[in-house]
Amino acid sequence: MAGEIKSTDLGRLDGPLLLFGGPYSNLQAITALAGFAQARGIAGDQMICTGDIVAYCGAPARSVAAVRALGCAVVAGNCEAQLASGAEDCGCGFAPGSSCDMLSGAWFAYAAAQVSGADKAWMGGLPDVVTFRHQGERYGVIHGGVRDVARFVWSESPAQVFEQEWQALEGIVGPVDHIIAGHSGLPFIRETPRGRWINAGVIGMPPHDGGQQTRFALLDGSEVTIHRLSYDMAGAVADMQEAGLPRAYADALQSGYWPSEDVLPQALRLPSFARG
């Protein structure tokens, strides 16, 4: 991440908080999440998005409008940063020549053409870091890594990765008890010597587990729980088909498996995953 890191403090948020990442242009998932929040009486100011509103699916402009309508706090993901700057690629951190790298060209070009200049300007103003206090503890929210917005941090990452990120974040915003992050697409809670690293998962794409439901998290009191999200998957697939996007990610919504495991560390790959 180049330049000065922008941070925003939300103050004290003591009620239940809904944490989610990666809407990924999946309007139907955003709609389902909004329905869950409404049913639980969770207002937009009690919701936090870890970024990447726009990505693989077929409704980028409508997804931005839906997230903005929620009124939730949003941390800038790599997709927001790239769209705001007029970049030619998503900056997702995929290895050059990998399946995901090659597929990203189509959906990013479509999103760049669909998202308005006003929405891109809004993305450019989003903070890189959000902080808040909850039940007496201080939280920091980032997308991937503090200095590298597209850094993949996994449940299986070495302890030094979490320590590096903790030091980098505290160097900017001061001490935090816990960190909330996104980007990797897989939900997990890792207990570290510093506190919990909480990845709420993403709502726009299943977590490569063979199921169609996606994930988000609730922070209530001191407890964090990962929840499954059911949504109109067929509607999301139809949007992708209408947009003329490659079939790979539409197939992923249906099968529950990502197009490839290129980005995953070996420990998180599925022994029976069919490649090709």
From TrEMBL:
It holds the Pfam family Metallophos_2. Residues 38-220 form the Calcineurin-like phosphoesterase domain. Gene3D superfamilies: 3.60.21.10. It comes from the Bacteria. Belongs to the metallophosphoesterase superfamily. YfcE family. This is Calcineurin-like phosphoesterase superfamily domain-containing protein. It comes from Sulfitobacter delicatus.
